[in-house]
Design brief:
By secondary structure, the protein is mainly alpha-helical. It is 69% helix and 0% strand. The N and C termini lie far apart (61 Å). It contains seven helices and no strands. It has one domain: Serine Threonine Protein Phosphatase 5, Tetratricopeptide repeat (Alpha Horseshoe). It is elongated.
Length: 154
């Protein structure tokens, strides 16, 4: 009987944590959408720390873009990877773009970028498809990677 009560107590605590994670994320998302990044940041961090993969992804984006926080590519990649590893596939598009552009001093890695962007594009992500097109055509920031210059992006 004690084991059953202990199990029920642990499940109840886990459920309460999950509910708090969702609540913190919802509150953070509302603030984020109203462009109040400074107030969104602590709630987004709380939700991410509690395992909310959507919060992890958006927190990574916030660090990447300097929304409510100083740009920090290392933290951006850390949170985006955690979101992706946790099963939130949408984080792959942002992580791929970070690797492709080198935004926030993220180490550029075109092969990794291409792999992530191809997955996102195959799921219908138009921004990822456009980034791949730019890479293939050597457009914009990828002009130096055209054939005949420093090699192709592939």
């Amino acid at each position: 009987m004690l084991t059953l009560l202990d199990t029920i107590a642990k499940l109840n605590a886990a459920l309460a944590g999950k509910v708090r994670s969702i609540t913190a994320y919802d509150e953070a998302l509302a603030l984020y959408n109203s462009l109040d990044y400074g107030k969104a940041l602590p709630l987004m961090t709380e939700a991410a720390d509690m395992g909310n993969t959507q919060a992890m992804s958006l927190l990574g984006s916030m660090y990447l873009l300097g929304q409510g926080v100083k740009e920090d590519g290392r933290l951006a990649v850390q949170w985006l990877r955690r979101a992706l590893e946790g099963g939130y596939e949408e984080a792959g598009s942002v992580l791929g773009m970070a690797y492709a552009t080198g935004k926030a001093d993220v180490q550029r890695d075109l092969p990794a970028a291409r792999a992530l962007l191809e997955i996102a594009a195959s799921r219908g992500d138009a921004q990822s498809a456009r980034m791949l097109e730019m890479m293939d055509k050597g457009e914009g920031m990828f002009a130096a990677t055209r054939k005949g210059k420093r090699g192709h992006c592939r």
